[in-house]
Design a protein that fits this description.
- The protein has 107 residues and is of the alpha+beta class.
- It has helices spanning 7-16, 66-69, 78-83, 92-97; strands spanning 32-36, 42-49, 53-54, 59-60.
- The chain has a two-stranded antiparallel sheet with strand order 1-2. Strands 3-4 form a two-stranded antiparallel ribbon.
- A hairpin with a 4-residue loop joins strand 3 (53-54) and strand 4 (59-60).
């Protein structure tokens, strides 16, 4: 069962909520096929990008219509950033929300 976001995670989210999409670092890893390895590590298949992903700019060519044109495209919400096992740990959304052992944000 999925836990609820912690107070610190919610606070970090609220601090950027109005500019949530700007948090994205445009790494493009979420635009490739991914699976979990036996050790739980996210394996990214860099030979299989989304057909709308521009490899040069790391941007989506149909960004405004991406959810309509690609049924596998998923919006990165607070819950996705926290709990989707296929979102790489290096993802800027995950790094922002991750709780560090010393209590500071990862970014």
């Amino acid at each position: 069962m999925e836990r609820e976001p912690s107070a610190k995670e919610l606070q970090r989210y609220e601090s950027v909520r109005e500019r949530w999409e700007e948090v994205c670092s445009r790494c493009g890893r979420c635009c490739f096929e991914r699976e979990l390895g036996d050790d739980g590590e996210v394996l990214v298949d860099y030979a299989s990008p989304c057909r709308f992903f521009d490899m040069g700019t790391h941007l989506c060519r149909v960004y405004k219509d991406r959810f309509r044109k690609n049924e596998r495209c998923a919006k990165v919400t607070l819950r996705v950033a926290l709990f989707d096992e296929l979102l790489p740990e290096e993802c800027a959304y995950r790094r922002l929300l991750r709780e560090e052992s010393d209590g500071t944000a990862a970014l």
